């Protein structure tokens, strides 16, 4: 790893009706606050979950979405307008998940592949 670069992790726990997680620096385990987490339901849930849910990570890097119908959601992580991470969270299969985010300082390198939104969420 180059000097000045840091790595961060995104850990998630998926329950019966919730998705919770924490974003943190790997080297220090210190939470990263003030990141926006967006949860997008699939099209067929729009009548039940009629809008995207948003949360901001707290000082410990934690976030939580509750009262969710079981399904497959799209989770996005932003720092300001910059998309840092996007992936599906399958509440039927996923229980725990850990993702490594690479970056410099607080600015993580967005992956260009994140620009594509899966068709079931459009």
Strand order of the largest sheet: 5-2-1-8-9
Overall tally of structural domains: 1
Shape: globular
Enter the CATH topology name: Immunoglobulin-like
Question: Judging by the overall fold, what is the CATH architecture?
Answer: Sandwich
> What is the CATH first-level class name?
Mainly Beta
What value does the average pLDDT take? 77
Biggest β-sheet, characterized?
Answer: 5 strands, antiparallel
Question: By helix and strand content, what is the structural category?
Answer: mainly beta
Distance between the termini: 37 Å
Task: Write the H/E string, N to C.
Answer: EEEEEEEEE
Please report which band the strand proportion falls in: under 5%, 5-15%, 15-25%, 25-35%, 35-45% or over 45%: over 45%
Helical residue percent? under 10%
The poorly predicted ranges are 1-5, 109-116
Radius of gyration: 14 Å
Secondary structure: number of strands: 9
Structure description:
By secondary structure, the chain is an all-beta fold. It has one domain: Immunoglobulin-like (Sandwich). The chain is 0% helix and 48% strand. The chain is built from no helices and nine strands. The strands form two sheets. A five-stranded antiparallel β-sheet has the order 5-2-1-8-9, with no helix packed on it. Strand 1 and strand 2 form a beta hairpin. The radius of gyration is 14 Å and the shape is globular. Residues 1-5 and 109-116 have low confidence and may be disordered.
């Amino acid at each position: 790893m180059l000097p000045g670069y840091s790595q961060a992790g995104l850990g998630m726990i998926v329950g019966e009706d919730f998705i919770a997680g924490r974003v943190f620096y790997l080297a220090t385990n210190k939470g990263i606050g003030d990141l926006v987490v967006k949860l997008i339901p699939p099209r067929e849930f729009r009548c039940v979950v009629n809008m995207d849910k948003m949360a901001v990570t707290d000082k410990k890097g934690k976030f939580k979405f509750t009262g969710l119908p079981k399904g497959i959601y799209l989770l996005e992580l932003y720092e300001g307008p910059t998309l840092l991470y996007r992936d599906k969270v399958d509440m039927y299969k996923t229980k725990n998940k850990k993702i490594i985010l690479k970056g410099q300082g607080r600015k993580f390198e967005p992956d260009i592949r994140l620009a594509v939104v899966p068709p079931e969420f459009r």
